[in-house]
Structures are given as structure tokens and as C-alpha cells.
Design a protein that fits this description.
The complex is a heterodimer. In chain A, helix 3 (114-124) crosses helix 4, helix 3 packs parallel to helix 5 (158-170) and helix 4 crosses helix 5. In chain A, strand 4 (79-84) and strand 5 (87-88) form a beta hairpin. Chain A folds into two domains: 2-98 and 174-250, 3-Layer(aba) Sandwich (Rossmann fold); 258-377, Nucleic acid-binding proteins (OB fold (Dihydrolipoamide Acetyltransferase, E2P), Beta Barrel), CATH 2.40.50. Chain A has helices spanning 2-16, 64-72, 114-124, 129-142, 158-170, 188-205, 216-222, 240-245, 250-255; strands at residues 24-35, 38-49, 53-57, 79-84, 87-88, 99-102, 176-180, 208-213, 225-230, 233-238, 260-270, 273-278, 281-286, 298-303, 308-311, 320-331, 335-342, 345-352, 363-368, 374-377. Chain A is globular and about 75 Å long. Chain A contains nine helices and 20 strands. Chain B is mainly α. Chain B is globular. Classes of the chains: A alpha+beta, B mainly alpha. Chains A and B meet through strand 6 and helix 3 of A and helix 1, helix 22 and helix 23 of B.
């Protein structure tokens, strides 16, 4: 009985996948989960469009993994609804949800060969041996492990194990693939390589991925949509571009990449522009949408280090200029990072391609285009 | 709770486990404590239990101290030195675990009794060896190997890296042991001492055979039933015994669950321990040789007696004792031992594993209570357990239970549940939850995931539960002593009866056969598992 239902569900999903781009596939509605007194996930809501690569990003303990595990069915939410493909799944047991999961430690079954690992879900759902073998073979080819079917998990490298874990979940053609920090156990180089593979895989399949990570580079490079979580709440959700350039809070700006956050006060609001005073200076920047600002409001100016440039002290660049003194610097390979003291406050400035650029020391001018400055209300 | 409603299979399994625990663990024990009849309180008021009570405490204190001391010496030597003959010592140290503890008393009589090989044969003396001194000596020899296993387990889990670090910081071997090893192992050692005390306290066979007029609580309970058929008074005595055992057990659990530093690292063996001085190794070697010599003497005399006409008077070789024990009712008893032991182990180990899974992986309310109930039989003296089964199930409409031996099997199963249960929980802790979750996210129900993924990975837990249950089942006397009928005797009962009848040839031949059965089972499992097997009974 269960098998029949499950097969039908899988088949239905497979056939309806390509329809209606932009349709909401996964929705969390005021979901709360407590462990004891403290809420691990505190009244969060978000929507994930079908076929998108959605990422939950946040520091450890922010509730992102708890959220993923509620979607998978390993935890019951205390409040709120989880809706997948138009159906409320709160009361479905984990094995009926059609939400396959890739675990941080891969959780490959050590007593089964690679083939048996990948074929396990098919065996459970009663797929006949011939078809099972065919689909396992195809999946192994698909993830680039065609020749390793008869190996054992402990004979594989970390990257290969990771691919088995992904293949084992994909072979079921799940409604949604859940990935819990799947790259965090790999070394840096492989992590970046597999990142692109995952992204390519997701786009080829058009499948909805929900991905959990604490690595902002990973989140920015992989995702169509990111929800940044902190202390059990979603701080902000949106495209990587929005998250990076238009963070809504200082926490967000600071968590996603390096940033200069300079406290200031609103002097005047002029239509689309706002004049902000900081220290002895004022700057006119674009007014962020959806943010009510009035004169006297405390704000922070948020500007990314790579949006700043260093010039010789006497130069007169276009845009805004801040005279300062280089306090220290660090060579990071692809860029040179300077800490420049301006009016007693340190600014981080990244200079790309240090090999081709001039080397600065002592007095300098920090140049910034006002349109690169983003205002955060505090 | 909600997760249970969604998976009726798991709910059903849980209800089955709870029902079995309620019927076969909780109910019989409740029946002993609240036995109907006024003579229960009358007996308690009478105070005839005071003397055995004091005796029990006295014997427990003496035997525990001496057994733990010898066990500690043996364990230290095995874990810390690189003396010669370690593998041999190890094998000899396991031997007593595979035998009914009370056969030490039988051997003691053979060696030191009125016509004993040493006292009479060598020195021509007939001294009285019965009483407190006899029990003390016999229990020391019988239980120091148990203490050794427990202590060696604790010591070997202490992290060699920390000892190396202390040596690196300039501490000598003795300072390291005093300031690092001992403080880290203290909770474990305390638990080992208390566990040994429980074994000594509930020992029935040894005090019965060599105690003479010196009565302890288990022998008093037995006399009350076998002599007077007074189950009510025996229940009162057993309850006192249980209360004592529970006090020890609760203290042990608190130590165990408390600051157990030694289990922090799972890969403590990755580094060799710092070497100990040569003279210490030599001293340890001498001590172990003496201790193993005693064990060999005890069991050797049993074997010699089994193959000689009337040891030690007439040492003509004979196989007539074995012909005797393989024939007629004796043969039935041997067969029963094997069948009951196998049946108990076959059911108990998987049952304990399932229960361990339900408790360890579950999220439902009340699993703390079930956990407690599943471990409780470890604290219950065998005699108490047996009395409970008599009081609970000795009903006319349940005759079919006892006549076929089913009642004995049930008692063996549930008395040994803690062994398999603790092995299962320990095994499950080694398997990350993501394993079962992976199975579930791939479409397997919880039960299916348990079967396909966890069960194959928990083979060693299952083996520990199986072999330990089997060994304990074929070597227990106190659990079955009230449960057998003429058709359902087992080896330990027959040994006990033959010792009482002073039929030494038959008794020792039976003992050899019984130990042989336990050794064969351990050997077969060891071969099947390619050597990866351990006895878990000492840790229950």
C-alpha cells in the first residue's frame, strides 16, 4: 500500500516539475521549534519557488539545520505549517515526504556497496530489480562514478563519498533535495570544484534544492535565493545580490563578507536621496527603498571594501574623498587589504590585483562613489 | 509522541516491549514486595532476619575488599605492564566467568575439606573450614576475576595520551598513576567495586555449600522455602536483599553516569602507554602467576575429579562420571541447559536490541522510565527474581508454562535483558543518528531503517548480548532454583544437588560439561565473528 502511494507520488512529481516557473514549491508559515525553553527556530516564514536553489545561511546555532530537519520530518514543529507542493506535510512521517537529504557526514551505509547505497531507496519503494539496476547505473554515470559501483564507502575519497550521497538521494527523483552542509568536510579546493558541480546538476535537473551552509561564499555562488538566519529568525531573504549589497541589518552586512559600517545621522531627506552626516563630513547617497527615514535618525553607512579605492594623497578622484593614513596591510594573493585611519576610525579598503597596482603607505586618499554606499537603519 | 502516531509499526513494537516488561519484569517483583498474608510483617517483626542481615553485610565487606584488591592487581598488571604470558593470563582470567560461581566452593571442599586433597592428603589434617572464613576465601577466589574484568575495562579506557602528557611534563610512573590515572578512573573504579559487592551480596551457592551454620540472606531465603515451604517469609527476606542491592546499584549508577572522564575519547588505544619499571613488571608477573595458579588449581581439581574414581582418595582414571551425567534424567538436564540457554539468548538479545533502539532513538515521553525498568534486573538478586516468578506465575491455569520449561526460559530472558540492552545502547551511541535519518529520508519507515541499516551495524552488540545471556543462563543457580520441576532440571541444579549429596564425581563431571558448553558457545561465536567478541556480563 505504502509502496504504491509512494511510487504514484514520485511519478506525479516527475511529470509536473517543468510546469509554471515561479510557482511556490515549498512554504514555511510561522514555524516555531523549541528545545526546552529556548526557541531554536522562532516564528519563521518563507517561500521557495519551484526549481530554485534556495540556501539557508547563518552562523552555527542560528536554527538553519533545525529548519532543514523540520522540512525533512526529523523534527516536529511546535507551531506553524510546512507546505510542500501545495500539500501540508506536518503530519507526514519523514519517509513519505519525498524530501531526500544529503548529510554533512554523508551517512553512507558502511555495510552496503556504492551500488547498494544508491539503490537503497529504490529497493525500499519496491522498484523491480531490472529497473533498479538501470537507474542506479544511470545515476552513477550522472554523478561521475560509473566505474565505482562495486566499491565500499570506506574505499572512496571524501569527494567520491559526497557524490554517492548526492546520487543516492537523486536517484529517487525527490520532490525536493535537502542538503545539510554537504561540502564542509572537504578540503578547500575540492569544495569549490564540487560547488560548481552541484550548481550545474541542479540547473540540469531543474529540481528544487534547499541548501544549508554557514559559508557565505558558498551561499552567494550557488544560490538563486538566500535566507540569512540569526538566533532562530530569518534576518533577510532575497537574491545573493540583494543580500550582499543591500543588507537590511549590520549583522547581515557583517556576516556576509567584509564590510565598513560607519555610524551616522540623517540630516535631510530629498526625494530619492538622503544626506547623512558622519564625523565632520556629510555625504549624499541613494535612499534605500522601503525604509522610512527622517532627519535626526541614527543610521549606518555600509560600504564594501572592494567598492573603495586608494589614491595618492593629492589626487582628486571623482566621487567622494577621504584623506587618511595607512595603518597596516595584508597581502591576500588576489588582493591587498589595507586598514586606513580616517578621522580616527579604521576603514577596510581592498585593492584588486596587487601585482599590477601601486603600493601605498603613509598618507593616502580613500575614494568612494556615493552610489556604492548603502544605508542601514539601526 | 506525534512521531509515534504517524508510524503505527513503531507504536506497536513499543507497546509489545512495554507489555512484556510489565508482565515479566515489573509484575513478579511487585508480587514479592507486596506478598499477601500477615506472616510477612510478622516475620519482619520477629527479627530472625537480623543475624543473616548482619552476616551478609560482613561477608560482603570482607569479600568485596579482598576480591577487588586481587582484581585490581591483576588488572593493573594486564593493562600497564608488558610482562610475559599475558595472553595466557587473559584466557585463564576469563575462565571463571564461564562457570557457575559456586563451583569454587565445591572445589574448595575437594581441596581443603575434611578429606581434602591438601588439608588431609598433604598435611593429614581435618580442620573445620566451614563458616565465615570459608565463605570469605571462596568468594574472594570466585569473584576476583569479575572484579578484574570490570577494573581492567575501566583502566584500559583511560586515555594513554594524558598519561604520556603527564610523563612529558616530568611526572614519574607512580605520580602519573596517582595524579592522572586514578582521579580520571575513580568513578569507573567506584562502579566496579559496587558491582562486585552486588555479585557477592546475592551469591547463594557458595555460602550454602561452605557456610555451615553461618547463614546469609540468600541462604536463609532458600532454607525458608526448601525447608518450610514458607514463601511469604522468604519473600520478606528477598525484599531485604533487594533493598540492599538497590542501594548499591543506585550508588553505582550515579558514579557511572557522573563524571565519567575516561570515556571521553573513543580512540584511546592509538598511543602506547608509558612503560613501567622492570621490577614492577616482574612483581606483577609473580602476582598474576600466583592468582592464575589458584584459578588453575580450582578448576584443575574439578577436571581431575571428573575423570577419576573418587578424587582425591582413588585417582584411577574413569569416564564413568560422564557416562552417568549423559544418561537418563541427567542427560535431560544437560539437554535442557543447552536448549533453555539457546532459547533465552536467541530471544533476549534481539529483544534487548529492539528495546534499546526504541529508548535510545525515540523521542516519546516516558522513555526514561522504560530505560530504568530494562536495566533494573541487573540490580535484582537472582534469588529474588526466581521467587518473583514463583509467586507471580505459579497458578494452576499457567501450569503449561512451568511444565515445558518455558517459565525458566522466560526468567533467563528477562533477568538477562540488561546485558543485551546495555550492549545495544552502547552500540547505538556509536552509530550517528544521520544513519537512520538517511534511511528514512530515502523512503524507509523507521522500523525498516532499523532492520536494513542499524541491525547490520549492531552485530557486535547483538553478539555480546547473545553470548553473555547464554553464559549467564547456563551458569545461574539462584534464578532457577525455585523454578525447576522434575522434567525441567538444568545442569546447575544437578550440580547443586550432587554437591549436597557429596557425589563429587558426578558434580564435577557436570561442572566440566557445563563450563564446556559455555566455552564452546563463546568459541563458536568468536570464530563466526572472526575474534571480535567480548563478554558483557561483567558490566551489567
Amino acid at each position: 500500500m505504502a509502496r504504491v502511494l509512494r511510487n504514484a507520488a514520485t511519478a506525479a512529481v516527475a511529470s509536473e516539475t517543468p510546469t509554471q516557473p515561479g510557482e511556490i514549491h515549498l512554504r514555511l508559515d510561522h514555524v516555531t521549534k523549541r528545545f526546552g525553553e529556548t526557541p531554536a527556530v522562532d516564528d519563521i516564514s518563507f517561500e521557495v519557488p519551484r526549481g530554485s536553489f534556495a540556501t539557508l545561511l547563518g552562523p552555527s546555532g542560528c536554527g538553519k539545520t533545525t529548519t532543514l530537519r523540520m522540512i525533512a520530518g526529523f523534527y516536529d514543529p511546535d507551531k506553524g505549517d510546512i507546505v510542500l507542493g501545495g500539500r501540508r506535510i506536518n503530519d507526514l512521517p519523514a519517509h513519505r515526504r519525498g524530501a531526500a537529504m544529503v548529510f554533512q557526514d554523508y551517512a553512507l551505509f558502511p555495510h552496503m556497496s556504492v551500488e547498494d547505497n544508491v539503490g537503497y531507496g529504490l529497493r525500499v519503494s519496491g522498484v523491480a530489480k531490472d529497473e533498479r539496476d538501470r537507474r542506479v547505473r544511470e545515476t552513477l554515470e550522472f554523478v561521475g562514478l560509473g566505474a565505482l559501483g562495486d566499491r565500499w564507502p570506506n574505499q572512496l575519497s571524501g569527494g567520491q563519498q559526497q557524490r554517492v550521497a548526492v546520487g543516492r538521494a537523486l536517484v529517487l527523483e525527490p520532490q525536493v533535495l535537502l542538503l545539510d552542509e554537504p561540502l564542509s568536510n572537504l578540503d578547500a579546493k575540492l569544495r569549490v570544484q564540487l560547488r560548481w558541480e552541484l550548481r550545474a546538476l541542479q540547473q540540469r535537473l531543474g529540481m528544487t534544492f534547499v541548501y544549508v551552509t554557514h559559508d557565505q561564499d558558498e551561499a552567494l555562488s550557488l544560490s538563486d535565493w538566500i535566507a540569512v538566519m540569526n538566533a532562530g529568525k530569518v534576518e533577510q531573504a532575497g537574491t545573493p545580490w540583494e543580500i550582499y549589497y543591500h543588507p537590511r541589518t549590520s549583522f547581515l552586512a557583517d556576516f556576509v563578507g567584509a564590510v565598513n559600517l560607519v555610524p551616522g545621522t540623517v540630516r535631510e531627506v530629498r526625494g530619492d536621496e538622503v544626506v547623512v552626516a558622519f564625523g565632520e563630513r556629510t555625504v549624499t547617497v541613494r535612499r534605500p527603498s522601503g525604509l522610512a527615514l527622517a532627519a535626526g535618525r541614527e543610521v549606518r553607512l555600509c560600504v564594501r571594501p572592494e567598492a573603495l579605492a586608494l589614491r595618492p594623497p593629492a589626487a582628486d578622484p571623482d566621487g567622494f574623498r577621504l584623506p587618511g593614513i595607512v595603518a597596516r596591510r595584508a597581502f591576500l594573493g588576489d588582493l591587498m587589504r589595507y586598514w586606513v585611519t580616517v578621522d580616527g576610525r579604521e576603514w577596510i579598503v581592498d585593492q584588486p590585483d596587487p601585482g599590477a597596482a601601486a603600493d601605498f603607505d603613509g598618507p593616502v586618499t580613500v575614494a568612494v562613489k556615493p552610489e556604492r554606499i548603502h544605508v542601514i537603519a539601526e | 509522541m506525534r512521531s509515534l502516531q504517524r508510524e503505527p509499526g513503531v507504536l506497536l513494537a513499543l507497546l509489545a516491549v512495554v507489555a512484556l516488561v510489565a508482565i515479566f519484569i515489573v509484575y513478579p517483583q511487585v508480587r514479592v514486595v507486596v506478598t499477601p498474608g500477615g506472616s510477612y510483617t510478622e516475620f519482619l517483626a520477629g527479627g530472625t532476619w537480623m543475624k543473616p542481615f548482619v552476616n551478609s553485610l560482613q561477608v560482603m565487606a570482607l569479600s568485596t575488599v579482598s576480591a577487588v584488591f586481587l582484581g585490581f592487581v591483576f588488572a593493573y598488571a594486564m593493562v600497564y605492564t608488558d610482562m610475559r604470558w599475558k595472553p595466557l593470563f587473559k584466557v585463564i582470567g576469563i575462565l571463571p566467568l564461564l562457570s557457575p560461581p559456586f563451583v569454587v566452593a565445591a572445589s574448595y571442599l575437594l581441596l581443603f575439606g575434611p578429606r581434602g586433597m591438601i588439608t588431609y592428603g598433604v598435611f593429614g589434617q581435618t580442620i573445620s573450614i566451614f563458616g565465615l572464613g570459608g565463605i570469605w576465601g571462596v568468594q574472594t577466589i570466585a569473584f576476583f576475576p569479575f572484579a578484574y574484568q570490570l577494573i581492567a575495562d575501566v583502566l584500559s579506557r583511560s586515555d594513554a595520551r594524558m598519561e604520556q602528557a603527564a610523563r612529558n611534563l616530568g611526572a614519574g610512573p607512580w605520580t602519573v598513576f596517582r595524579t592522572v590515572t586514578l582521579p580520571l578512573s575513580r568513578p569507573g573504579l567506584g562502579a566496579a567495586i559496587l558491582t562486585t559487592a552486588i555479585y557477592v551480596l546475592e551469591d547463594f551457592g557458595n555460602p550454602w555449600v561452605v557456610g555451615g551454620q553461618f547463614t546469609v540472606l540468600p541462604t536463609q531465603a532458600y532454607s525458608l522455602i526448601s525447608g518450610f515451604g514458607d514463601f511469604t517469609s522468604a519473600a520478606a527476606v528477598s525484599t531485604i536483599l533487594l533493598a540492599l542491592a538497590l542501594v548499591l546499584y543506585v550508588a553505582k549508577v550515579r558514579l557511572d553516569g557522573g563524571r565519567s572522564f575516561v570515556t571521553v575519547s573513543g580512540r584511546a588505544s592509538s598511543m602506547p602507554r608509558p612503560p613501567v619499571p622492570g621490577w614492577l613488571s616482574s612483581a606483577c608477573f609473580a602476582a598474576c602467576s600466583v592468582l592464575c595458579g589458584m584459578i588453575v588449581l580450582v578448576y584443575g581439581s574439578l577436571v581431575v575429579s571428573a575423570f577419576t574414581l573418587t578424587f582425591p582418595v582413588n585417582t584411577t582414571f574413569t569416564t564413568s562420571h560422564f557416562a552417568f551425567i549423559f544418561s537418563g534424567a541427567n542427560g535431560v538436564a544437560l539437554r535442557n541447559t543447552l536448549v533453555y540457554g539457546l532459547a533465552a539468548a536467541t530471544f533476549s538479545a534481539p529483544f534487548a536490541l529492539l528495546a534499546g533502539w526504541l529508548v535510545q532513538r525515540g523521542t516519546w515521553r516516558g522513555r526514561g522510565l522504560l530505560d530504568l525498568l530494562l536495566i533494573m534486573p541487573a540490580a535484582v538478586p537472582g534469588l529474588f527474581f526466581g521467587v518473583g516468578y514463583v509467586l507471580a506465575f505459579n497458578e494452576r491455569w499457567l501450569d503449561w508454562l512451568s511444565s515445558g520449561g518455558l517459565l525458566i526460559i522466560l526468567a533467563m530472558i528477562f533477568w538477562n535483558v540488561p546485558v543485551g540492552y546495555q550492549a545495544a545502547v552502547a552500540g547505538l551511541r556509536q552509530v550517528d543518528r544521520s544513519m537512520d535519518e538517511a534511511a528514512r529520508s530515502l523512503g524507509a519507515s523507521s522500523l525498516r531503517g532499523f532492520r536494513d541499516v542499524l541491525l547490520p551495524m549492531l552485530g557486535s552488540s547483538l553478539r555480546v548480548g547473545f553470548i553473555t545471556t547464554f553464559v549467564r543462563a547456563v551458569t545461574t543457580l539462584s534464578v532457577v532454583i525455585f523454578l525447576f520441576t522434575s522434567g525441567t532440571t538444568v545442569a546447575t541444579i544437578r550440580i547443586f544437588q550432587l554437591v549436597n549429596d557429596l557425589d563429587w564425581g558426578g558434580a564435577t563431571a557436570f561442572t566440566v560439561a557445563d563450563i564446556g558448553m559455555a566455552m564452546a558457545a563463546l568459541g563458536i561465536i568468536a570464530v563466526l565473528a572472526r575474534g571480535r567478541v567480548a563478554l558483557g556480563g561483567a558490566r551489567a
